[in-house]
Amino acid sequence: MTTQTATPVVARTRDELAEARAALTAGDVAVVMTMGALHHGHAQLIKQARARAEHVIVTIFLNPLQFGPREDLSRYPRTFDDDMEICTREGVDIVFAPTPDVVYPEGDPGVRISAGPLGAVLEGQARPGHFDGVLTVVGKLLHLTGASSAYFGQKDAQQLLLIRRMVRDLDFPVDVVSVPTVREEDGLAMSSRNTYLTASDREVALCLSQALKAGADAAAEGPSAIRRAARSVLVKEPLALIDYLVLVHPTTLEDVPEWYRGEALLAVAGRVGTTRLIDNMPVRVGPGGGALQVFSEHAGRHEAPVE
Ligand SMILES: Nc1ncnc2c1ncn2[C@@H]1O[C@H](COP(=O)(O)OP(=O)(O)OP(=O)(O)O)[C@@H](O)[C@H]1O
Ligand SMILES: [Mg+2]
User: Fold this and answer.
1) Domain ranges within the chain, ordered by starting residue
2) Verdict on whether the full-model pTM lies above 0.90
3) Which residue spans within the chain are E strands per DSSP?
4) Catalytic residue (one of 42, 55, 130, 302)
5) Does the beta carbon of 46 lie inside 6 Å of ligand 1?
6) Residues 44-89 pLDDT 10s
7) Residue 298 annotated as catalytic
8) Residues that bind (R)-pantoate, according to the entry (predicted)?
C-alpha cells in the first residue's frame, strides 16, 4: 500500500461528504467511526482499514443519541487538530466531522434502530437507550459514507456484537471487522475518557485489566475459577466501584454455566472517580484455555497489528 501524507479532506456537511466520497473511485471504501479525541486504539483501527481497503473515511461525531441525560456530553474532550494530525499520518482520505444538526436535521429522530434484548443487558442496563442510539448513528453513517467495510474495537465488545447483529439482521451490505483492544503498557485499555482520570484514579483503574488477566490465567479451570480469580483482584481495590464482572457467551451474553467449555467473554465495568470505565477479554474456557485476541469466528478476518 502506498504511503499517503496528504491532509484528508474535511467534510462538515452532507454535500461536502458526497462530493469527497464521489472522488474515491479507485476501490473499496472502509469507515472507522469515532467520537474524536483519537488515541492509539483509533489509529490501529485506521491502520487495519488502510491495510485492506483502498480508501478510508474516519467519522468524528459526538452522537447525542447515545448519551444519557446524566452523562455529560459537554465535557467530552474535543481535540480536532490533534485528531487531524493522526488522520493525516495514517493516510485517511476523508474526515467526516458533522454537527448534530447535519446528522439529525429534523432534530431527535422519531424512528430509531432497536438493539433488542441484547441491548438491554450489561452496558445497556447501565445506559438505557445507549445502544439504540449507537445503532441508529452507525446505520446512518454507513449509508452516508457508502463504505463496504467498517472497523470497530473489541474494547466495546457489546457494541461490536450488536453492530454485527444489525448488519446481519437488517441486511446491511457491509463487512464488519473487529480489532483487538489496544492497551497502555501497564494494561489499561486505551479510551478517550481516560483523560478524565486523575493520577490516583489511573492507578485504581489498573485493577480492571488486572482482574481480566487473572481471570484469563485461570481459564483452564472453568467458569467459576475464572470469575473467582477476577473478583479477587477487584475486591482488593475498594475505590473501583464495580458495576458488573461477568463471564458470558460471546453471542448471547448469557452467563456461561459451570460445565461450559469454549470461547467466552470476560467483561467488567465500573466507576473510578467520576469516570465509568469498561474493559473485557475474550477467553477460551477449558483445558489449554486462556486469553484470546478476538473470537475465532472472526479471527480469519483480522491480521496481526500493523505498525
Ligand atoms: N483501546 C482500544 N482498542 C481498540 N479499539 C478501540 C479502543 N478504544 C476505542 N476503540 C474503538 O474505537 C472506535 C471509536 O470509539 P470511541 O470514539 O468511542 O473511543 P473510546 O476511546 O471508546 O472513547 P470513549 O471512552 O469515550 O467511549 C470504537 O470502535 C471503539 O471500540
Ligand atoms: Mg467509546
Assistant:
1) 9-179, 192-299
2) yes
3) 9-11, 29-34, 55-60, 94-96, 149-153, 175-179, 240-248, 262-272, 275-285, 290-291
4) 42
5) no
6) 999 999 999 999 999 999 999 999 988 889 999 999 999 999 999 9
7) no
8) 66, 159
